[in-house]
Amino acid sequence: MTMYNVEKSRVNVNMKGEGEPILFLHGVPDTSEVWDGAIAAFSDKYQCIAPDLPGFGRTQAPRNFEYSLENLANFIDQLLSSLSIAGGVHMVIHDIGGVVGLAFAITYPHKVKSLTIMDTTFFSDYEWHAMAKTWRKPILGELVMYLMGRSKFSAAMKKSAPILTNAQIQSNYDSLTWRNRRMILRFYRALDPVIFRKWEGQLQTLSQRFPTQVIWGEKDAFLPVALSRRFGTDNVHVLEDTGHWPMLEQANEVHRLIRGNIALAE
Q1: What is the pLDDT of residue 48?
Q2: Protein fold of 2-127+193-265
């Protein structure tokens, strides 16, 4: 892992392999480590790039980092420039990494070669799940974050994805520093669903620009499976007995699907 300067942030990037670049963007409460299995699977043929997003993991972002869709798209563009990635990238995005990645793909479609979307939202009529709604509330959100101890966090993760190992859950919890918890609150409070309204039309055209697929856990407790059909593509794969983390719960199948989508762009 290496640190890169991206505007006023010091971004931790897990990068391995050579070839066409694949950009992996993680969600909450994850870090780039959630993609370790994917990087191991793809780095023999591709340049795998997995950053810790601003305020997450080891990335050091200013406390006033702007979590607007426009700035998140610009952040990814500047990150790729810092990595000397001049051509397009294959994108694999999950959860809030999906929000970040879709903002980038809509703003810079000529810089995307293929897109794999997993368990995320980009819709103005979607109401955040119960936990996110709590985080969006001033004072209450801070209190809930402060009181979220290891046992409560572990129970919530196991309920959402029973197949997750204790080591995976422990890694996620260890990354939840108080700084990270504050940034999570800021992220969700900045992204009121109404802001997606002016972007939704462009979202529907992405699959006309490059190969696009959706992978979704049938038993996702945070994002209903009905959302999987709303990204402007019929290339949708709903995985049975899978929760919010398909890349961990059904890793081999997810890797197979990613390879297939990339092949359509080659």
Answers
A1: 98
A2: Rossmann fold (3.40.50)
